[in-house]
């Protein structure tokens, strides 16, 4: 398989890897360079990190252990592992003293999740695994008591596949995670807060831009068309990015209470509706004009000013 060169090639690669994630240990970390290459606008930069990750991925797939099928009634084992920016798990079964993998899960932590304590990250890893592995051990309603769950500390590892899974959380991957966390700690000179609102009276957006000098630019925008909630949130983001561009911002940190918009921009969610795809492409094109950007999901109650502007715009005529 030749290395991807175009945007379509990289999108096809990440799509295939998403389908194969259950077969690949720590697939999120392995694919991290590809997602970074897709982040900026419509173009794609296939750099040295992408090529190294691609070759390493091909080597891994060429010798990846076969997944095993569990037998009815047998005891299954789950290994959980967390780092500063990812969580992963592997479900295994034991046969003749050898542990064989059944299913891998992995998750890239969102900004708020990177601030979890180790115990909270471990709980999140278990929740993520439980949701994805429901057919294996949650096919029926179950009740937990203090005697239903048994915790075993890790002893000797009896299978190379599981050993490889654990080993992948040593220094190289932790260093990548540490770099991601350090990037999240960066203080941006320009900040953009956006919110969209749609109701029976109409739809609109609230935009607040904070400049490096401490000034604030506030906008309440009423749309002359009926927009859904998600469309209003995208319109707010796009309008805010245009304002930042006009003001001369070269970097921007964006705060939005829309989980859908934030996660689609971060490539955590996939845009399926045609209008959402168009909005997402435009938003990424605008983000590509900045040297650096970061988008963060915030609860609505933590951004009352922008929320009030959006509601004012959607409920008022001719602001």
UniProtKB/TrEMBL annotation:
Matches recorded under InterPro entries: DNA/RNA_pol_sf (IPR043502), Rev_trsase/Diguanyl_cyclase (IPR043128), RNaseH-like_sf (IPR012337), RNaseH_domain (IPR002156), RNaseH_sf (IPR036397), RT_RNaseH_2 (IPR041577)
Coiled-coil regions, chain positions: none
Chain segments annotated as transmembrane: none
Matching PROSITE patterns: RNASE_H_1
Gene Ontology molecular function terms on file: nucleic acid binding; RNA-DNA hybrid ribonuclease activity
Protein name, as recorded: RNase H type-1 domain-containing protein
Pfam families reported in the protein's UniProt record: RT_RNaseH_2, RVT_3
Domain of life: Eukaryota
SUPFAM superfamilies linked: DNA/RNA polymerases, Ribonuclease H-like
Gene3D superfamilies (alphabetical): 3.30.70.270, Ribonuclease H-like superfamily/Ribonuclease H
RNase H type-1 domain sequence ranges: 186-315
């Amino acid at each position: 398989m030749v290395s991807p060169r175009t945007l379509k090639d990289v999108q096809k690669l990440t799509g295939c890897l998403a389908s194969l994630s259950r077969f690949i240990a720590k697939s999120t970390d392995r694919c991290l360079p590809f997602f970074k290459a897709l982040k900026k606008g419509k173009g794609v930069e296939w750099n040295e990190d992408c090529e190294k990750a691609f070759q390493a991925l091909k080597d891994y797939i060429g010798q990846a252990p076969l997944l095993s099928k569990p037998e009815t009634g047998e005891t299954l084992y789950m290994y959980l592992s967390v780092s500063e920016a990812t969580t992963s798990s592997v479900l295994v079964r034991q046969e003749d003293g050898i542990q064989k993998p059944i299913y891998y899960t992995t998750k890239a932590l969102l900004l708020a999740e990177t601030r979890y304590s180790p115990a909270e990250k471990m709980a999140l890893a278990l929740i993520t695994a439980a949701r994805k592995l429901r057919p294996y051990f949650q096919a029926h309603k179950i009740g937990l008591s203090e005697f239903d769950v048994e915790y075993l500390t890790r002893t000797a590892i009896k299978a190379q596949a599981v050993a490889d899974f654990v080993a992948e959380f040593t220094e190289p991957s932790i260093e990548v995670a540490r770099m991601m966390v350090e990037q999240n700690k960066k203080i941006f000179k320009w900040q953009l807060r956006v919110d969209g609102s749609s109701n029976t009276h109409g739809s609109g957006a609230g935009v607040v831009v904070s400049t490096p000098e401490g000034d604030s630019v506030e906008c309440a925008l009423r749309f002359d068309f009926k927009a859904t909630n998600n469309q209003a949130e995208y319109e707010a983001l796009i309008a805010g990015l245009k304002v930042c561009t006009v003001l001369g911002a070269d970097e921007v940190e964006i705060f939005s209470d829309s989980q859908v918009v934030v996660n689609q921009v971060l490539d955590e969610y996939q845009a399926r509706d045609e209008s959402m795809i168009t909005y997402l492409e435009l938003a990424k094109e605008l983000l590509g004009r900045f040297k650096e950007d970061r988008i963060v999901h915030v609860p609505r109650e933590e951004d009352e000013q922008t929320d009030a502007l959006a509601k004012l715009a959607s409920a008022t005529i001719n602001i």
